[in-house]
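Re: that chain you flagged

S.,

Sorry for the slow reply, it's been a week of failed gels. I finally had a moment to sit down with the sequence you sent. For the record, here it is as I used it:
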Amino acid sequence: MDRKNRTVMVVGLGRFGASIARTLSEDGVQVLGIDRRMDLVESLQQELTQAVQADSMDRETLHMLGAGDFDTAFVTIGGDLKASCADYVALQKAQGLPFADYGGQTVCRYTFRLTNYPGGRTDAQANLLLCGSDVIAGDVMLLGADGGQFSLAFPK
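Prediction finished late last night. Pasting the structure tokens below so you have them in one place:
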């Protein structure tokens, strides 16, 4: 997938989130920026594909914004770590990932080198997160300079 077709959601448009969103947007990536503060949203409206004021801890809001349809999401941690963690869990739930259901349990990450990635790329790897025998998340990463991280679709 080329960068112009990639979609990224950035939750939190403070200094760090705004920097990520701007860099991606300048690189041709379609970026949705979300923040509770309207002044931060307004400051980026001309630079991003879309910037909206919203409560990112509200699962229904994330669903309406299409959180599960984005290739990648960044939850940038600001001054309120508890709220940022809650944002991250809400985003996971909106994407159908059950991380919160496995809180306090041991989760193992398995990384596999992909030898059959389209186009013959040799820098592709797949990551799976398992809790016991349950696959709870996964992604494909392309490690080169033109790489990225792409979510895996899991059957419901």
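What I noticed first: Residues 81-94 form the longest helix (14 residues).

Talk soon,
D.
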